[in-house]
């Protein structure tokens, strides 16, 4: 392989990456063109002749750049998307260059070792059992799915049914229970696991599960059950009462899973850990590193207390695969046999930040969310609807029409992006503070932009 085969093309890629990163905080956040326009700029037909790789990279960057949304902007608050930590980004580039299929620790000991360290550090940060199984997956949905598959197998084994061998058909029905505010990724994971849509048991105004309703639902039947709790409601940011809910669920013999896509990171902060009190008694947990930890996409984490249950549900077996050793293989903890070394950027972020840096990161996001809520509450015509306990802020104008107009106005203005949603029967604007760059100054810029855009709308009728 010639020494210079990659030099020119990687130099062009690095140039375009730096141009993007250096402009992302000040550029208009919304994409300027549609997907069809990007495709037209690239050319929709594959020609007979190839092109120089460096030219291809330039062509790609120039055509796609107008179609990129500045999701790493410190004033992007949509979809709970984090920013990019420099160490994690650089590590992610190396992961692509190394091109290790991190399915097994035997042929890829380098990346497997780093992932095992990252898993150990995560368990320590979260205060979870050190013997838990950890899988690095694509995101919250896949992390929830991985945990539900382990849960499904274990509760059915307790009932005398081997679902890994015999499948679901003919076995006992597994009850799947959640609060009324269960996230769509949890619902999708349940569908893919063959559990169906969860039976909801009630929730309070902030989205926290009704523990009494959970107990009543579990008492309806003595069969196998899985209970989904959540750390961080997608609208309010609220956390379930884990201590009470886990106790009720375990008393009924149920497996308890915690969906903590962004909220599980509260456990890494001494000042916020009270929000997750009792969550360590659950049986499995799911989170994303590409949210609160600010690792580039994609980066989900599935954690299961009983590593054997995780391996039984997800482990692959074939004559050509390495003989299992004393330590579980990476492919025992994810639905994928072939995958990139997603845990390496997680390790890099943790190594760069340290325990104190992770706590400061989480605390800083919460401080910015509270500053944002205080400032928006003072804007005439706006109302903050949720109790801001973590990183979510939901606001509404006088009526749904004006709230929708505010969302559109913000997108057109380009300084701030916030997501529209519906909560408590009202149209809302949801601000998810997830970017390490969203500090007090950026919160102030956000408040100013919202007040300016709202003031430019026609008067409320």
Automatic annotation (TrEMBL):
Protein name in the entry: Pyridoxal-dependent decarboxylase
Keyword Lyase in annotation: yes
Family: Belongs to the group II decarboxylase family.
InterPro entries from the UniProt entry: Aromatic_deC, PyrdxlP-dep_de-COase, PyrdxlP-dep_Trfase, PyrdxlP-dep_Trfase_major, PyrdxlP-dep_Trfase_small
Keyword Lyase: yes
Coiled coil: none
One protein family per Pfam: Pyridoxal_deC
Cofactor(s) it depends on: pyridoxal 5'-phosphate
Organism of provenance: Agromyces larvae
Alphabetical keyword list: Decarboxylase, Lyase, Pyridoxal phosphate
Highest taxon above the source species: Bacteria
PANTHER family: GROUP II PYRIDOXAL-5-PHOSPHATE DECARBOXYLASE, MIP05841P
């Amino acid at each position: 392989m010639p020494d210079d085969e990659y030099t020119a093309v990687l130099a062009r890629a690095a140039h375009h990456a730096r141009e993007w990163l250096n402009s992302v905080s000040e550029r208009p956040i919304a994409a300027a063109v549609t997907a069809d326009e990007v495709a037209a700029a690239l050319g929709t037909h594959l020609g007979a002749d190839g092109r120089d790789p460096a030219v291809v990279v330039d062509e790609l960057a120039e055509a796609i750049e107008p179609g990129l949304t500045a999701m790493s902007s410190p004033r992007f608050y949509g979809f709970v998307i984090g920013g990019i930590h420099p160490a994690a980004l650089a590590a992610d580039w190396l992961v692509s260059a190394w091109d290790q299929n991190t399915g097994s620790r035997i042929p890829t000991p380098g990346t497997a070792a780093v992932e095992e360290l990252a898993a150990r550090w995560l368990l320590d940060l979260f205060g979870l059992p050190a013997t838990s199984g950890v899988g690095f997956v694509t995101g919250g949905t896949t992390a929830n799915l991985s945990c539900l598959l382990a849960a499904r197998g274990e509760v059915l084994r307790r009932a005398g049914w081997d679902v890994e061998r015999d499948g679901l058909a003919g076995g006992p029905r597994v009850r799947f229970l959640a609060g009324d505010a269960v996230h769509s990724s949890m619902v999708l994971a349940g569908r893919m696991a063959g559990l169906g849509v969860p039976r909801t048991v009630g929730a309070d105004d902030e989205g926290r599960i009704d523990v009494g309703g959970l107990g009543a639902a579990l008492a309806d039947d003595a069969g196998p059950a899985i209970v989904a709790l959540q750390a961080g409601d997608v609208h309010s940011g609220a956390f379930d009462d884990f201590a009470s809910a886990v106790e009720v669920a375990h008393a009924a013999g149920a497996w308890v899973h915690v969906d903590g896509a962004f909220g599980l990171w509260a456990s890494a902060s001494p000042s916020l850990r009270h929000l997750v009190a009792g969550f360590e008694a659950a049986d499995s947990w799911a989170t994303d590193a590409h949210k609160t930890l600010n690792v580039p996409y994609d980066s989900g984490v599935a954690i299961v207390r009983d590593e054997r249950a995780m391996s039984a549900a997800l482990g692959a077996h074939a004559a050509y695969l390495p003989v299992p050793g004393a330590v579980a293989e990476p492919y025992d903890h994810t639905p994928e046999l072939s995958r990139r070394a997603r845990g390496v950027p997680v390790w890099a972020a943790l190594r760069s930040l340290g325990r104190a840096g992770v706590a400061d990161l989480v605390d800083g996001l919460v401080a910015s969310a509270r500053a944002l809520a205080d400032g928006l509450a003072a804007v005439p015509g706006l109302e903050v609807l949720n109790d801001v306990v973590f990183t979510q802020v939901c606001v509404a104008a006088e009526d749904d029409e004006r709230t929708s107009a505010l969302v559109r106005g913000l997108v057109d203005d380009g300084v701030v992006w916030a997501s529209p949603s519906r909560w408590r029967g009202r149209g809302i604007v949801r601000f998810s503070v997830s970017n390490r760059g969203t500090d007090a100054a950026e919160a102030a810029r956000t408040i100013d932009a919202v007040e300016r855009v709202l003031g430019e709308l026609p008067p409320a009728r």
